[in-house]
Design brief:
The structure is a single chain. By secondary structure, the protein is of the alpha/beta class. The protein has 3 domains: 46 residues, no CATH class; 177 residues, Spore Coat Polysaccharide Biosynthesis Protein SpsA, Chain A; 45 residues. The strands form 2 sheets. A 7-stranded mixed beta sheet has the order 2-1-3-7-5-8-6, with helices on both faces. Strands 4-9-10 form a 3-stranded antiparallel beta sheet. It is elongated and about 95 Å long.
């Protein structure tokens, strides 16, 4: 049974009688009974009725964006399709007077999409980039609908968060929301929650009204100040855009520490004012140190979100995780803190 079918049937069963459900959906009682028994598929019109604000009684008014001017760019890297709940959450937060929107899709290598979006973002004068993946359900200012979409049953104060308002409020240049892997034992998608059992257990008791530094945080729900991109370019010039503003490699897997050490080593070897023995010794020292840093900071086995965050920290922008911003991650169901229940 699809999620949308379940949503319609949940609405049907919320009415005391079949007659009242039929009146709500403007169909016959017989058709409602067939939906309930599974002998007829739920219609698209019925789904639209569930999502119709004028037909759906909500206990809470959606929260609005709380900043002035167009200072946030919504960046959406996508492979092929987006979950309808993801789309609804983003549409609910979208304010075209205050936000720009950028989309890149169809590239099977997600790092390429993230890089191209960053290229385009830096062509603008917008201050903040908010990147959200096509399988995420982020809080969008309406607690009742968020809990319906995710089935997390979070307290209204957490489920009703406006994600972008919340992330901006921390005044951090790199900060992301809490989410978990898309399977029953999926771990928290930030460094300590992924690697430490005690921290993972703490994350599973979220929400916690805590925003704290972390080595890396997932890019599924991430707010990035434009200086993060430009400072990475200054720290690692070989990752920077070309003179036309294209082909930045902020998210691309690359042993950037080893590359930087090789460039320093070549400069030392080409310095004829120093003896050959001294040049060789210094070159070996630089390459050995670069190799060690590369294993820790820029291994080719790291995901693009880990790579990006480590480069950001090396460039003066420590990543942060907001443990009070709990997001859904859609797989065969919506996964969150209580995946195992």
């Amino acid at each position: 049974m699809s999620y949308l079918t379940e949503l319609v049937l949940a609405k049907v069963r919320s009415f005391p009688t079949i007659r009242e459900a039929a009146d709500f959906f403007e169909v016959s009682e017989g058709l409602v009974s067939q939906w309930d028994k599974g002998s007829k598929p739920v219609s698209l019109a019925a789904v639209e009725r569930v999502f119709d604000p004028s037909a759906t009684p909500l206990s809470q008014t959606a929260r609005e964006a709380m900043w002035e001017g167009k200072s946030v760019c919504l960046m959406m890297p996508s492979y092929k399709t987006s979950n309808p709940r993801t789309t609804f959450a983003l549409m609910s937060m979208l304010d075209r007077q205050k936000m720009a929107v950028m989309l890149d899709f169809g590239d099977a290598f997600i790092a390429h999409s993230r890089n191209k979006l960053a290229d385009n973002f830096l062509r603008s004068k917008i201050e903040w980039a908010f990147t959200v993946d096509d399988d995420m359900i982020v809080p969008f200012g309406n607690a009742e609908l968020f809990n319906t979409f995710t089935r997390f049953n979070l307290p209204a104060a957490s489920a009703g968060i406006h994600t972008i308002n919340r992330l901006l409020s921390h005044n951090k240049t790199l900060v992301g929301g809490l989410y978990f892997g898309r399977w029953a034992h999926g771990k928290a998608v930030y460094c300590e929650g992924h690697q430490d059992k005690a921290e993972e257990a703490f994350a599973r008791r979220a929400p916690h009204d805590i925003c704290k530094p972390t080595r890396w945080v997932g890019t599924g729900c991430l707010l990035i100040h434009r200086t993060v991109f430009t400072d990475i370019e200054r720290t690692f010039p070989h990752l920077a855009r070309n003179p036309q503003g294209d082909y930045g490699h902020w998210f691309t897997s690359n042993e950037h520490d080893l590359r930087a050490s090789a460039e320093q080593s070549l400069a030392v070897l080409n310095d004829a004012s120093v003896s050959a023995e001294a040049r060789i010794a210094e070159s070996v020292r630089l390459m050995t140190a670069g190799q060690q840093r590369s294993r820790h900071h820029s291994s080719l086995g790291m995901g693009e979100d880990v790579t990006f965050c480590i480069r950001a920290e090396q460039s003066g922008h420590p990543p942060h995780i907001d443990l009070g911003l709990v997001c859904g991650h859609v797989g065969d169901k919506c996964y969150g803190p209580r995946n195992r229940e």
